[in-house]
Amino acid sequence: MEINLMTVFFSYRKKLLLNIMRVFVLLCCLTTFGFSPLPILSQNAEVTIDVDKTITVDEVFDLIMSQTDYKFIYQEGIFNNYPKVSLQKGTMKANQLLQKSLLGGNFDFEFTSNNTFIIKKNSFNASKQTFQEREIQGTVTDEKGMPLVGVTVIVEGTQRGVVTNFNGQYTIQLNANETTLVFSSLGYKTERITVNEQRVIDLIMKEDFSQLDEIVLIGYGEQNREEVTGAVSSVDTKQIVQSATGTVGLDRSLGGLVKGLQVSQPSGRPGSPVRLNIRGITSPLSGFGGLNQPLFVIDGVPFNVDALQGANPLLTINPNDIESFDVLKDAAATSIYGSRGANGVIIIQTKKGKRNQKPTVNLSYTTSLAKPINTVDVLNASQYRQFYDMLITNTVNAMNAGQVDPFFAFDLDN
To answer: Angle 94-101/57-67 helices, nearest 10 degrees?
Structure first.
């Protein structure tokens, strides 16, 4: 029996080639699935949303876990101040829903082999963002859903702010270290909103009925604030007490408490009054005695601070004894005081006993210290003697050298 070696060789070679091809195909499949991003698997999972709703990120994760076999691992409370997610009725793929929920935040998520998402803060993006400005926008409405026009939005601690437009919308820039926005409008309660990761902040402002029922002094009596037609500002006595702590004089604590009131200190003498200007400078003679200061009326008695030659009657008033503090700004409010109220009027009413009121005793103690600014260092007797001896010696030497006029010697002797 003859065996053809060439036939056996080619048959073996054919089988070897088939085995190599099978191994190559297997390696290609393993390589393809091994290097594919695992989140692609999540694209096949869909989440059903039964109704339109707005939920938190934590509730989004609960919704995904209830309909899929995925799990989430993240730090507790990481999404407390994160904006809510608006979902519409229908179906959505799990990865799309996850990306929509984390859109705009500094978060990274990693998909592990056991169908678990690990979510954590992106430290690189967070550190990079600290050097950039953030743009915050939103809409301000009232309790009925109507947009509010002219609402002031200020970055707390700065003088930067914007005003809402006719649609109640605003846009403001925040630096990395600025985290609070202050919303204020006449007749509404002032709101302070802390900004974390939000980019859109919508606010519903509530009416402040207490301001309308507040009693203010208008020079010739008392009126409810809602009936006052003139420009009258009232200062909360609690703010005066807090601002007066550590300062010398009641007038120094008024800075920043009244709109349109400018407080400046023209002198460094201890106990000297500050200069107050309501709605700017009204007299060109402001450099001669500070004639732009308002008229003070304390318990019905007018005080002209400028006429007291540097004295400060407000030093005698204890901030804890003030019951009301009102500032009359325009001509309608100050008309009863005539020309004396041309620069505005500040009415201070102190506390007094009332009928059928039980006696109360309050004790408070405040100590403040003031010292002059830019004091001149003077010489004592020994130092002055040394200075004068040096002056005489240098003068005589200069006269002998012919460097000083002889008439100077006569002046020096006299």
So the answer is: 170
225 is written with which tokens? Answer: 């604030």
Output the CA torsion sign for 49, 54, 55, 57. Answer: positive
pLDDT band at 122 (very low <50, low <70, confident <90, very high): low
180 alpha-carbon distance from chain centroid: 5
403/408 Cα distance (integer angstroms): 11
pLDDT-based confidence at 386, cuts 50/70/90?
very high
pLDDT (tens digit per residue) in 318-364? 888 888 888 887 776 677 777 777 788 888 888 887 778 788 887 77
Cα–Cα distance for residue pair 164/171, rounded to 1 Å: 8
Backbone angles phi, psi at 375, to 5 degrees: -75, 155
* Side-chain half-sphere exposure of 20, counting CA atoms within 13 A: 6
CA–CA distance, 177 with 114 (Å, rounded to integer): 40
d(CA 140, CA 201): 9
Q: Quick check: 250 and 366 in contact, CB under 8 A?
A: no
At 140 the pLDDT is 92
Number of neighbouring beta carbons within 10 Å of residue 401: 8
CA 413 to chain centre: 67
- Which CATH code, of 3.90.1150.10, 3.90.76.10, 2.60.40.1120, 2.60.200.30, is assigned to 132-207? 2.60.40.1120
CATH topology of domain 40-126: Phage tail protein beta-alpha-beta fold (3.55.50)
Which residues are bridge partners to 47 per DSSP? 92
Residue 170 has pLDDT above 90, yes or no: yes
Residue 95 has pLDDT above 60, yes or no: yes
Q: Are strands 71-73 and 116-121 parallel, antiparallel or unpaired?
A: parallel
Give the contacts of 141 (CB within 8 A, at least 6 positions apart). Answer: 147, 148, 168, 202, 203, 204, 205
Take residue 107 and report the two structure tokens written for it: 């978060």
pLDDT higher than threshold 50 for residue 400 = yes
Measured CA to CA in angstroms, residue 242 lies from 59, 210, 271 at distances of 44, 22, 20
- Decide which of 3.50.50.60, 2.170.130.10, 3.10.180.10, 3.40.109.10 is the CATH code for 212-350: 2.170.130.10
Structure tokens at 303: 């005080």
Q: How many whole angstroms separate alpha carbon 248 and alpha carbon 147?
A: 45
